[in-house]
UniProtKB/TrEMBL annotation:
Protein family membership: Belongs to the prolyl-tRNA editing family. YbaK/EbsC subfamily.
Enzyme type, top EC level: lyase
GO biological process entries: translation
Organism of origin: Ligilactobacillus salitolerans
Keywords: Aminoacyl-tRNA synthetase, Ligase, Lyase, Protein biosynthesis
EC code(s) of this entry: 4.2.-.-
Keyword Aminoacyl-tRNA synthetase: yes
Protein name: Cys-tRNA(Pro)/Cys-tRNA(Cys) deacylase
Membrane-spanning ranges: none
GO molecular function: aminoacyl-tRNA deacylase activity; aminoacyl-tRNA ligase activity; lyase activity
Stretches assigned to the YbaK/aminoacyl-tRNA synthetase-associated domain: 40-156
Keyword Metal-binding: no
């Protein structure tokens, strides 16, 4: 008697993608084992590190609820002063990691533009360096779970904009 392959329970973010008729694939990578190990696993799947996005939650200078989200390659850094200039703000700070679950509904490492846009409607910005990527990976709302999808579909879904987030 053969065993059935255990199907993963869909995350809320995957259900949002389904509701919008968007095509994606589910992925699992063990980021808790360390970034290098996870990047080796993604490379083995044929996924470039530049197409794996991290989601950074920031607080702008326009008040205590001026949150915004920046998505950039996991191997890249963010220049907060440059982001502030791009958005016409005095300053941009990283949101307090200890308060992320209260701010976004996600723990550190699980933040995703899909769920944040649906639940909080914070403005979502993408690093302009990824414009040439056809497909990208973003968190599926749980640590270690990702979705791979068309960049254009994600940007449209979350009403995102491309900005410069670091020097080229």
């Amino acid at each position: 008697m053969s065993k059935k392959k255990k199907q993963l329970k869909k995350t809320n973010e995957e259900r949002i993608l389904d509701e919008n008729g968007l095509v994606y694939s589910e992925l699992q990578f063990n980021w808790l084992a360390g970034k290098e190990e996870a990047l080796k696993a993604t490379a083995a799947e044929g996924i470039s590190e530049e197409s794996i996005l991290k989601t950074i939650v920031c607080l702008g200078s326009d008040g205590p609820k001026d949150y915004l989200v920046i998505c950039l390659p996991i191997v890249s850094e963010i220049d907060l002063k440059m982001v502030a200039r791009e958005l016409g703000k005095k300053q941009i700070h990283l949101a307090d990691n200890k308060k992320l679950i209260k701010i976004t509904g996600y723990i550190h490492g699980a933040n995703t533009p899909i769920g944040i846009h649906a639940a909080k409607d914070f403005p979502i910005y993408f690093d302009q360096r990824i414009k040439d990527q056809s497909e990208i990976c973003v968190s599926a709302g749980k640590v270690g779970r990702s979705v791979r999808m068309q960049l254009s579909d994600l940007v449209q879904l979350v009403e995102g904009r491309f900005i410069q987030v670091a020097a080229q």
